[in-house]
């Protein structure tokens, strides 16, 4: 004979299920950061192992990539998403034992993301606190990443060139730089 559950039993079962799901979700969330690898850029761009991944870096290729950074961080206390992905790319390639000398990475700031390329003192004047991107910009440069800013962005945003982080070069425009890099065979990654 089929037993009919009481309201109390149903409530208890629903509560127990929700509790189990919550604990499982917290456990999974807690386990991911411990799996992250940071072989090149230590605090940004986590690279998680993916056992059985079907596409891995091909060691007979030269990876030419241009990160098109157009949006500033929505939260001015966090690193720009495009910079974080450039760091992740370096960490992923290193995690796969890909030779560093076969990487050619460029980051181009333009539009409203230009603010993230400013030296700390000028960023602070514009935003109200220190630039969370400055250390990562310096670290990316130290690992061979070329960092550019659109000269037209400087004019549009009324930034002086001497306000820029010293590791950032000025190009005529992002339009010219991006099309030039793409015509030279660089993969375009927009952020």
Explain this structure:
This protein is an alpha/beta fold. It has six helices and five strands, in the order αβαβααβαβαβ. The chain has helices spanning about 5-35, 80-95, 120-125, 135-140, 150-155, 175-185, and strands spanning about 65-70, 105-110, 145-150, 170, 185-190. It has a five-stranded parallel β-sheet, with helices on both faces. The longest helix has 29 residues, at about 5-35.
Short structural description:
With 191 residues, this protein is an alpha/beta fold.
Report how far the terminal alpha carbons are from each other. 61 Å
- What structural class results from the helix and strand content? alpha/beta
Helicity level, as a percent range? 40-55%
Note poorly predicted spans.
Answer: 13-31
What is the arithmetic mean of pLDDT?
88
Beta-strand residue percentage: 5-15%
Query: Rg to the nearest angstrom?
Result: 22 Å
Number of strands: 5
The major sheet is characterized as:
5 strands, parallel
Helix and strand sequence: HEHEHHEHEHE
The helix count comes to: 6
Global morphology: globular
Order of strands across the widest beta sheet? 4-3-2-1-5
